[in-house]
Fold these 3 entries.
Entry 1:
Amino acid sequence: MKNKMIFIISFIGALGGIAAAILSGITEPVLPPAYNPAASPYPSAIYAEGIVESAQTSGENMNIYPEVAGTVKEILVSEGQQVKAGQPLLLIDDSIQRATSEQQGSSAEAAAALLRELKAEPRKENLDVADAQVVAAQATLKTAQDTLQKDQAAYEIDPRSVSKDALDSALNAAAVAKANLIVAKKQDDLTKAGAWIYDIQNQERQQHALAKAYAASRALLGKYTLRASRDGIVLAINTIVGNYVSPQGSYDAYTQGADPVITLGSLPSSLHVRCYVDEILVPRLPLGSKMVAQMSIRGSDVKIPLEFVRVQPYVSPKIELSNQRQERVDVRVLPVIFKIGKSTNVNLYPGELVDVYISE
């Protein structure tokens, strides 16, 4: 019985080994690729990596940075939205600057009011007071002179009727009254002359300086609103309400760097591709008017013809695609910009990497 069981187990093991050998020998059919790798459509071509960007007359997409620092109060647009030149995009909290501007505006208004007051002098009420003071001084002088004449006449008739001290006091009172009349008339002339020209000029300068300070404050207040400088489309918003932004941009917690607050591109009806040709291949580039190129979109079999736009005539380190400031090899590239032909079979977005082949 024991030998029989051993035989059965050995037979089953042999059958399993044969089945495993048969199964391992079966070859699975090779699956076709999801898409064909990018290949040159020309007999001889120059390859370059490219990046899709908004059509620009020069430069790249417009990165918008605020000129002032503060907390984002409100975002008025959304990504992908088309905007017009001058349209507000984002508001930064301006409460402190607004209060400062209002204070400077009030100071400028007060200076202007004081200037108008100086130019409006003499005031009728001040003239009436000055005239009344002259009349009062004249009356006082007349009283003092009458008293002096009476004392002098009595003294001449009988020196014992008026003391010498009383006569001297009458003389002094008349002299003081005469001097007071002269002062009253001078003050009347000064009032009628109005404000001194130098006081007016000084006030004009102060009012002008305060008005300029208020205008500068108002201009700075306008910087707390980010506006579109031209028609375009919002490509990216790199902040949220409550975030702190500065002229350096908005802090990105993922990259731990500063990004532009808003990236603005041209309308999606026209896109460019900026390709970077290695400097050792630059001598092989044909003339711009004869340059023929085609790009392949990664992950698809779509190929789109390109139309030459311009060459950016400055060879620079290849850091645009990797964003690395230091590399082991100093690879330098020449940017060449093409216009992308219309294609209804694929969606393209600024920032997308593509493969570009330029016919030699």
Note: The chain has four domains: 45-59+267-359, 64-92+224-265, 99-117+201-221, 122-194.
Entry 2:
Amino acid sequence: MANRYHLQLLASLFEYPDADYHDRVGDIKDILSGRYSDATAELERFIELLPVNDLQKMQELFTRSFDVQAVTTLDVGYVLFGDDYKRGILLANLNREHRHAGIDTGTELADYIPNLLRLMAVIEDEEVLQDLAYAILAPALLEMIGEFSTDRIQKRNKSYKKHYKTLIETPAVAVEAVTLYQFALKSLYAVLKQDFALIETMPLQRSNDFLASVSRENEIEEAATTHS
């Protein structure tokens, strides 16, 4: 896989939407079209649901998916390991690789999906690239996609409501659009399946349950507040 520029482009799919976001997504679809048919189909579904003429709603959908009272997180180390020490080891290793590749991770951590994709687009060590694809990104994506199921969203919202007493209002969009980012994640996973063929046949284990992590965090926070 000599040219991995498409991974660099895919990174912007998971950045906070700005005025040019819809155009960038369209450019990504054009790049994928013809070579990645499954990924293109998922991305077309994402574009269909994206409220292209309302930047605020696009931003709210991003925030509701990945930030505040989120469906999941874009920090793959947390998805896989939660607060376990293994995430610290992963971050240390990724920080080293980012520095070596000359990548500025900005205000996000080294395991943030856009940062990880930019690293994978330029990294020269084939063995490390394979590890990032098979052991880190692919299993994390499966976990993240699973978090968008109706059952998991309902349980998560119940947990959030229990601990925060209220839920952030869902953006006024079509029901299907509330979970539109699952199609962006599925598109990325479809790209990985083609670029790294063994992903399609390897049994990838779900390493961590984001909902369980959310519940544990809420319980810890509640206990700290009670005893303070």
Note: The chain has one domain: 5-227.
Entry 3:
Amino acid sequence: MPSNDRDIRQRDLVPPDRLAQCHAVVIGVGAVGRQVALQLAAVGVPQMTLIDHDTVAVENLAPQGFWESDLGRTKVEAVAEIAKRQFTDIAITCVPERFRASAVRTWPADREIAIFCAVDSIDVRKLIWEAVRSRAGFFTDGRMLGEVIRVLASGAPAVDRLYEKTLFPGSEAMQGSCTSRSSIYTANITAGLMLSQFARHLRGMAVVPDQLLNLIAAEYTAADPAF
């Protein structure tokens, strides 16, 4: 089948003209970020930057979905290789280091920047938010602890006043570290919720600023869409 028909069944959900204008930046490509990057490649985002300083270790195989052949490789390189196999036309920039505020200056000025934050530290989230909010057209943050998921999103980061309220430890609902218990299925759900907000943004719909899903209790709550 011609490559230009690869997205034929999703065009009503992910507008190809809007998607073609985007440059996705995935910060942290562990459990959640790896799934986000692969889903972005599958939907056909044309450009993507992957940022993560870590390498693949044996404990990453089950919960993060890396392959045994990835052991010892940088996570960004391992994820980029699979993403390119999913969508050969994608242009991927790998940054095998921690996020730096100066990185914003290297992102293309002629593209809408979509930020997918998948890190495990409130301090790092705050650094990222302050660095990217004036440049990004879309921002989402996926947080996961065990089987509890929180996904935050903004379709107008430059003027958003809701997300920053989650950046203080006293009010932070999802606390944990990258060594906390996790699973591939929870990571996939988190990534899917993040991509669904990206799709809403591309369709011109208001994003849902805050979603909380507790798989153990089978409970889901969501804030009203942010206009």
Note: The helical segments are 16-19, 31-43, 61-64, 75-86, 122-132, 184-202.
